[in-house]
Amino acid sequence: MRDISVSVATKANRQTLPSVDVTIGEQADLLSSQLQSMSEALFPPTSQKVLRKFTSGEAARLIGVSDSTLRKMSLAGEGPQPETTSNGRRLYTLSDINQIRRMLAQSTRGRASVDFVPHRRPGEHLQVLAVTNFKGGSGKTTTSAHLAQHLALQGYRVLAVDLDPQASLSALLGILPELDVGSNQTLYAAIRYDDERRNLSDVIRSTYFDGLDLVPGNLELMEFEHTTPKALSAGTPGETLFFARVAAALDEVADNYDVVVIDCPPQLGFLTLSGLCAATSMIVTVHPQMLDISSMSQFLLMTRDLLGVVSDAGGDLKYDFIRYLLTRFEPQDAPQTKVAALLRNLFDDHVLTNPMLKSAAVSDAGLTKQTLYEIGRENLTRSTYDRAMEALDAVNSEVEVLIKQAWGRA
Question: Could you say which of 29, 187, 227, 229 is the most buried, measured as most Cβ atoms within 10 Å of its Cβ?
Answer without folding.
Answer: 187
